[in-house]
Amino acid sequence: MLEGAAEPQTVRLSEILGALSHALDLTEGQPVGHCVRATWIGFHVGRHMGLPELQLWELYHTVMLKDLGCSSNAARICELYLSDDLSFKRDFKTVSDSLPKVLGFVFSHTGLKAGLAERFRAVLNILQNGGAIVDELIQTRCQRGAEIARQLRFPGSVCDAIHALDEHWNGGGRPDRLAGPAIPLYARVALLAQVVDVFHTAAGPAAAIAEVRERSGTWFDPQVVACFERASDEPGFWETLASDDVEAAVFALAPRSPILVDEDYLDDVARAFAQIIDAKSPFTSGHSERVAVYADMIAAELGYTPERRRWLKRAALLHDVGKLGVSNAILDKNGKLDDAEWRDMRNHASLSETILTRVAAFHEMARIGGGHHERLDGKGYPRGLRGDEIALETRIVSVADVFDALTADRPYRKAMPVEQAVEIMRREVDTAFDADCFGALERAIAKLDTELKPFSKAA
Fold this sequence. Notes:
Layout: H1 13-27, H2 34-48, H3 53-64, H4 74-81, H5 85-92, H6 99-109, H7 116-151, H8 156-163, H9 185-203, H10 205-215, H11 222-232, H12 237-241, H13 246-253, H14 263-278, H15 287-301, H16 306-318, H17 328-331, H18 339-357, H19 366-371, H20 392-406, H21 418-426, H22 435-458
């Protein structure tokens, strides 16, 4: 249905993507609601620029989805800077072009937990090759963000703006060193909105205004700055931005959408965010997609209807969305996690539930995101649910999730052969895993093996 339609079951595009943007905030290390607040700022700037409704809709979603590519460079940041990617990304948004600030950032965020020699090598590499390193990180992020926006059916104007988010008015930005009017207008507004929210959240309106004025003509288009200043003078602008009601206010502003939000589009949204989740770590590449396939195979064996299987695939695609809030220093660690790291890792299930609960269309899926690490014997997390307290769909995804985890590479071990993985899981039937779900997995694997043998022989 179109956004703004009168039917009671209308699914609003702005609310789906706005709620899921909280997952992007997590992986950028930003306070919850950053993308939504930036949308409030950017939309008001667009109004003062006199943009017509369709362009306001494009600007609205450019700002809301500006961080679509944010997970794609997280592992590389940890590798290059020997750093926690979440705090790195959070603090990087406050750094200007000032050399002392850049140097201060490098020294305060590189290899703080590494040995002296390792830290020295990392800092030296960054000082010698910093330009190329930043080029690589931003190009990866911008390119991936634009690709995902296209998958979500946004027009080229939105995709191009997301790609150009980090361009600066004076030509000193990235990834393409665009300058002045060559930078897409929506990108110019989105970058300003991002900086305003970061500084306003940290230190209030005066700090945000001062930062914008200081960067006018270098980072920011002076015309966009002037429109921001007029917007910020409106009654209630700052009060709403700082209030708990800002999300509702942003959703109320959403122009009518030309994108039809139907069942196919909900599939596209789930698939797109699964790619964002899996891009966080090289060891989870394709994980969510595979879990969705295995969950669907199990559900088919258990006699689920096509409609319910479709719903379950979406839930499986999004079950790990909370991992966007876990540092790659933990996700990619080659060794045992300490107690604090393990708490952060376990928290991803609760984060998944929190994020999915925000999306009306995905609300029922939230229990799967929150419960896919529960065990029948009550020794799982986060709630320690037992037996029938764990819904059947959650048990299906749990079996699919563990099977893929065992048969895929991890930082601390190579992928197991299917037979070994199945044997390990069989030992925990009725303690960790539901017997019917595990039996369905075994039958599905056997069928798959039979069907694929001709292909292996032909090869």
